[in-house]
Write a structure and sequence with these properties.
heterodimer; A: mainly alpha; MetI-like fold; two-stranded antiparallel sheet; 12 helices; flat; B: alpha+beta; Rossmann fold; OB fold (Dihydrolipoamide Acetyltransferase, E2P); 2 domains; six-stranded mixed sheet; five-stranded antiparallel sheet; 9 helices
């Protein structure tokens, strides 16, 4: 924090005390251009979270209710990618989806396409990579809370007059909300600051807050600016998360 | 009386285990009907079949005048009470009870009215209970809320699956009376599943005794207690002395090592021929110093225990049989090892097949 206000000026190897207290780094960080990048990052994080819910909820539901004795195996399959570092998985996606990648060569060989599909270096590719990376963080807490939804609740609601769809809306979904909240936070927060996946799969124009902070620190070596950016980012996330938690808690009470 | 629930040759099996085997039952309107049997006898499966939570492999189930085989549970108009553990944890008492009404889109005002009314019927003042959370309720209160939420939408049949199982004795006895009161008040058909024979005897208009997926006997509590259809029923309902022997040509029942026994309704026990069991209830046997009954055997007191209302003697007879006998606390007490005579009227013995 002190760095962001210019009170501390870091040099190559040691930390030097700065001359004056300044807000100039914040001026830079709050420039409309950067705010647009920030908004885009939040949008990416949001769409990642939504996509993870859309894919993760049915998956977790299936494992919890229909998994039977394969429950643990299925769960393991979803967690397995976590054992490999993100960096490696980034390269894996590149080899899979790239212009000369596995998928394209298969499709080309089958004659389904004439030219390689551009599946990387665009926004959709970034989203794909993000969902791939964050899905386990959604599925695990969802599974944990869905597992605790006892079958007897659903059966009771069915006999009391709820169709299977109504039973899901009124019983299963509300009872799994803690997992949904936890999973969303676990996905949204790190997704908003993600910089590895966008730098692998995004095009040169795909700049997100994470990649910006990364380059501010590592490439530009402007620690003050980087720190200010981080502060803005942290505050935004904090406000967002607090609002979300307040909302979800109220929902729970009804 | 009109039959409300009719089962015709209903069978159901799970992975080669036959849970319900060719069961046919006619359950009348307004009846308190119990299905009694040991755990794993298929009684819960039978209930779930009626509720629509399982579908039968074969047979016909009808509720009212409708065949419901292909009707999903929410269209069957039945209530199902679990063991007080199925209340929705994310809703309070009011919302739990209102659930069935909301699913049927009742207007708000009527929902309120009905919930309040059913709470009062359960002796639960709405102003105290309506807004309590489920985890603030005691076991008995939960049970009553579960019954309330299943009764509030006026189902044709209320199914109860061992509803008093987890409660302790005192509350259970209180709830048994409550349930009878409620059943008389609302006049709905109750189908009550239990493994507790005392409970079934106390509460039911009629009882079906089940074992291994089959219904062995259907009848009033008196019928089932005094003339059990077979050895299993005799053994399962109440306590009984069951001694194996043979029906002789002379009209007497012959037991190895004992004098021939007279059984007065040998004719009524028609069909019982050859090897059979003599069933005598412990309270029907008297202990005398001298023989003076239709039937009498002599034995030695092995054991005695005082249980408050009566004394239980275990008496060894003919070196190989042990009789259980209930004796009045006011009558003479016998010492361990004392030689005594046991006597019973010929009409108190019943012959059953194994």
């Amino acid at each position: 924090m002190a760095v962001s206000f210019g009170v501390i000026l870091p040099s190559q190897s040691q930390i030097v005390r700065g001359e004056v207290f300044t807000l100039s780094y914040y001026q830079q960080a709050l420039d409309p251009l950067f705010l647009k990048i920030l908004a885009r990052s939040l949008l990416l994080a949001l769409s990642t979270t939504v996509a993870c819910i859309l894919i993760g909820y049915p998956a977790a539901y299936y494992i919890a209710f229909k998994g039977g004795r394969y429950k643990n195996l299925l769960l393991l399959l979803f967690i397995l990618p976590l054992w490999v570092t993100f960096l490696l998985r980034g390269y894996a996606l590149l080899t899979l989806l790239g212009p000369e990648g596995v998928l394209n060569s298969i499709l080309l060989n089958l004659g389904l396409i004439r030219e390689p599909l551009y599946m990387i270096y665009n926004e959709f590719a970034v989203l794909q990579g993000m969902v791939y990376g964050y899905l386990p963080f959604m599925i695990l807490p969802l599974y944990a809370s869905l597992e605790k939804v006892r079958k007897i609740y659903i059966e009771a609601s069915r006999v009391m007059g709820a169709s299977s769809l109504k039973a899901f809306w009124k019983i299963t979904l509300p009872l799994s909300r803690p997992g949904l909240v936890a999973g969303s936070l676990l996905t949204f927060i790190p997704a908003a600051g993600e910089f590895i996946i966008p730098s692998f799969l995004g095009g040169p124009s795909e700049v997100y807050i994470g990649t910006m902070i990364y380059s501010a620190f590592i490439s530009a070596r402007n620690w003050n600016w980087g720190a200010a950016l981080s502060m803005v980012y942290i505050v935004m996330i904090l406000v967002g998360v607090l609002l979300y938690m307040k909302y979800s808690r109220e929902e729970l009470r009804i | 009386m009109k039959n409300e629930v009719i089962l015709q040759s209903v069978s159901k099996s799970y992975d080669r285990i036959q849970a319900v085997r060719d069961v046919s039952l006619n359950i009348g309107g307004n009846e308190f009907f119990s299905i009694l049997g040991p755990s794993g006898c298929g009684k819960t499966t039978l209930l779930r079949l009626v509720a629509g939570l399982e579908s039968p492999d074969s047979g016909v189930i009808s509720i009212g005048d409708r065949v419901v085989n292909n009707l999903p549970p929410h269209k069957r108009e039945v209530g199902l009470v679990f063991q007080g553990t199925a209340l929705f944890p994310h809703m309070n008492v009011f919302e739990n009870i209102a659930f069935g009404l909301r699913m049927r889109s009742y207007p708000k005002g009527e929902i309120r009215e009905r919930v309040m009314e059913v709470l009062r019927m359960m002796n639960m003042p709405p102003e105290i209970f309506a807004h309590k959370r489920v985890d603030q309720l005691s076991g008995g209160e939960r049970q009553r809320v579960e019954i309330a939420r299943s009764l509030v939408f006026e189902p044709r049949v209320l199914l109860l699956d061992e509803p008093l199982g987890p409660l302790d004795l005192k509350i259970r006895q209180k709830m048994q009376q409550e349930l009878k009161r409620i059943q008389r008040m609302v006049g709905t058909t109750f189908i009550y599943v239990t493994h507790d024979q005392t409970e079934a005897l106390i509460m039911s208009d009629r009882i079906a005794v089940m074992n291994r997926g089959e219904v062995l006997q259907v009848g009033t509590p008196e019928e089932i207690y005094s003339s059990p259809a077979n050895k299993f029923v005799a053994d399962f309902i109440g306590e009984s002395n069951l001694i194996e022997g043979e029906v002789g040509e002379d009209g007497l029942f012959h037991i190895d090592g004992l004098p021939p026994i007279m059984v007065s309704d040998m004719d009524k026990n028609s069909g019982v021929r050859g090897r059979a069991f003599l069933c005598i209830r412990p309270e029907k046997i008297s202990i005398y110093a001298e023989a003076e009954h239709d039937n009498s055997v002599s034995g030695i007191v092995l054991d005695k225990s005082y249980v408050g209302t009566h004394v239980v003697y275990r008496v060894e007879v003919g070196d190989r049989y042990v009789f259980t006998v209930y004796s009045n606390t006011s009558s003479r007490s016998f010492r361990l090892g004392e030689r005594i005579s046991l006597g019973w009227r010929s009409s108190d013995g019943v012959l059953v097949k194994g």
